[in-house]
Amino acid sequence: MAVIRITKEFRFEMAHALMGYDGPCRNIHGHSYELKVTVKGEPIVGKDHPKQGMVMDFGDLKRIVRSEIIDIFDHALVLNQDMDQQAIRLLDQNFEKIILLHYQPTSELMVTDFAARIRSRLPAGIELVSLLLRETATSYAEWLADEQL
């Protein structure tokens, strides 16, 4: 049987600030992110299988990505946990959805984090191939499984 890749696209809104950055992105600002998730596997065989002919049900992939990424990061303010603690407390008192990460919330590091979150939930026989995280119309970061150490 052939190995086939399938891709599902997602969109979410998120704000962040880059701690210590030497440009305007050190300020809180937002993006309309696009995330493309590509997995691969062999299509399911068997006349009696309800998912016959599918590598993976797109609905199942959607549930994984929604629970691991979209529901968490959509409409959140994402910051490095090492930012000034007083500033974080003030933000936390005034806003509901603040996420503190152990890393700088760049597209490059977020796409790596997202890959780990998604990989841990994929069913047996399904491999994560790539993620593309678009931050603006002209800028994106890409994670490729075959380039990982």
Short description:
The chain is of the alpha/beta class and 149 residues long.
How does this model look, in words?
- The protein is an alpha/beta fold and 149 residues long.
- The protein has a single domain (4-147), classed as 6-pyruvoyl tetrahydropterin synthase/QueD (Tetrahydropterin Synthase, Chain A), CATH 3.30.479.10.
- Helix content is 26%, strand content 34%.
- It is built from three helices and six strands, in the order ββαβαβαββ.
- It has helices at 58-73, 85-94, 107-119, and strands at residues 4-16, 29-41, 76-80, 98-101, 127-136, 139-144.
- The chain has a six-stranded mixed sheet.
- Helix 2 (85-94) links the parallel strand 3 and strand 4 (98-101).
- The mean pLDDT is 96.
Q: Can you lay out the helices and strands and say which pair or pack?
A:
Elements: E1 4-16, E2 29-41, H1 58-73, E3 76-80, H2 85-94, E4 98-101, H3 107-119, E5 127-136, E6 139-144
Parallel strand pairs: 1-3, 3-4
Antiparallel strand pairs: 1-2, 2-5, 5-6
Percentage of residues in helical conformation: 25-40%
Measured by DSSP, the beta-strand proportion falls in 25-35%
Integer-rounded radius of gyration: 18 Å
How is the biggest beta sheet arranged?
6 strands, mixed
Question: Can you give keywords for this protein?
Answer:
single chain, 149 residues, alpha/beta, Tetrahydropterin Synthase, Chain A, 6-stranded mixed sheet, 26% helix
